[in-house]
Amino acid sequence: MRHREPLSLNALLLVPSLALAALACVAVSARQGVLAAATTSTLVLVPVVFRLWTRTWYRGLVVRGLGIFFIGMHVPLLLAGALAYGRIGCSEGGCPQLYLLGVLASPIAGALSTVVYWLIGRPPV
């Protein structure tokens, strides 16, 4: 008789976090600012509150999480810039919607990367 491993709490929070990030991206593309702000704030608050209640915080975790936020925030900006640069006719500023989408999605990507880091981050050895 094999005993099953209990399901990890990180795995339980990772799926809703990804779903909230997807919903926030859809809200940004549909230009629903209130829904995008609500899902992004929920994306940040739920795992942070969970982490505060269930885990011990070690020195530097918050600072590293903020660094990961700034790194993750730049990914949509770089992708939107690269996609606009690759399109014909966008080199002279013909694609402001693509740039705007990257700007609007950047806080969502930053929040998601911070949440994932705080959920799976381990203390340095």
Automatic annotation (TrEMBL):
Keywords annotated in UniProt: Membrane, Signal, Transmembrane, Transmembrane helix
Transmembrane parts of this sequence: 34-53, 65-86, 98-120
UniProt signal peptide: 1-21
Protein name in the entry: Lipoprotein
Species this chain originates from: Myxococcus fulvus
